[in-house]
Amino acid sequence: MVEFKLPDVGEGMHEGEITRWLVKEGDFVTRDQPVVEVQTDKVNAELTSPATGVVNKMFFAVGDTVEVGATLYVIQPEGEEEKKPAAVPPAAPRQARALATPYVRQMAREMSIDLDDVAGTGPAGRVVESDLIQYAERKKAGPTPDNRPKEQEAKTEAASVKPLLLGESEERIPLKGIRKKIAEHLTKSATIIPHVTHVDELEMDAVKEWRDRIKEYADRKNIKLTFLPFFIKAIVIALKEFPTLNASIDDETNEIVLKHYYHIGIATDTEDGLIVPVIKHADQKTILELAAEISQLSFLAREGKLTLDQISGGTFTISNVGPIGGLQATPIINHPEVAILALHKMEPRMVVRNWEGVIRLMMNMSLSFDHRLIDGVTAVRFTNRIKELLENPNLLFAELR
């Protein structure tokens, strides 16, 4: 028998969620044939068979969360006689180590509770904060009279919750998959990084005129030309002049890592949540090349077909919410990056120029930055440089290589 264990298909991933089985028990599969689809950190990974043979046993169902190293399925290799069930290496659906977030694990340590003794009521049996509280209360009250299994206790206690008032209703949706990964990632970022947000506005009239001039040319090449490529170019130029915004902090070694490559993440809204595909070496690409890649990555993100390489390695992120609306925000930094720039809606506004009121096409931008590394003065100078390049596109094109 050949055991297939969940490998680390991401960058240090610890678990994955089964999103789809492509075969069933008893099916014959060939080596390298796709068998199961697992949701890792923001992408779907299609895992293939390590051998040719019959799928003898599958240990997890769709929706289960599996730790790296756990056996997903067992294959009886081609030509090998079927053995008795007892000869199959044992593998139980329940994890050897209780599933719980770092916060819950710390809470359990402080309460002197062994997580393996707690029945988890979260997705895939994950132990949540309320499980610890209920366990502590039961332990304080003494053992249950009938020594019921802890899983049954959890179900009974859940059923004893007071009903809602007449006319009220609730719907509970499991926090899992991409949404769970987003929640964990943003919580980590907001916890570790001291966020500060600087907001400024800029005139878009000049860059709009430039964009309108070359839009027809882009259309002939079947390229959708938005304003985003112009922002990427301006941002990359500014990042080269203010390198601390294109950096990260290595908390293990207490080192500042200045990155001399420019991989720009583009936050993209999808049905499953916010995905951040990354444009690699943005400084080496033309306006039209950037526009084409933005369209391609956005399509793949919405279809859930991005690869790990396409969502990793970013050095700076842009969140373009302008098409939806909004004047300003406090975007959360995409850890381990140290800054993120949100772009807001463009609209004609009355502004004062040379002591006279005039109408200009204006846009706000919000820069959140890691105050451990970046000072407010540096942040303002950074956005000032972006403004200068976009409000005077001749300067922007003069800086292009």
TrEMBL record:
Bias (Basic and acidic residues) ranges: 147-156
Protein name: Dihydrolipoamide acetyltransferase component of pyruvate dehydrogenase complex
Domain called Peripheral subunit-binding (PSBD): residue spans: 99-136
Cellular component aspect of the GO annotation: cytoplasm
Keywords, ordered alphabetically: Acyltransferase, Lipoyl, Transferase
Cofactor names: (R)-lipoate
Family according to the record: Belongs to the 2-oxoacid dehydrogenase family.
PROSITE patterns: BIOTINYL_LIPOYL, LIPOYL, PSBD
Organism name: Brevibacillus panacihumi W25
Region span, Disordered: 137-159
Domain Lipoyl-binding: 1-76
Keyword Ribonucleoprotein attributed: no
Gene Ontology terms for molecular function: acetyltransferase activity; lipoic acid binding
EC number: 2.3.1.-
Any Pfam family hit: 2-oxoacid_dh
Keyword Hydrolase part of the UniProt annotation: no
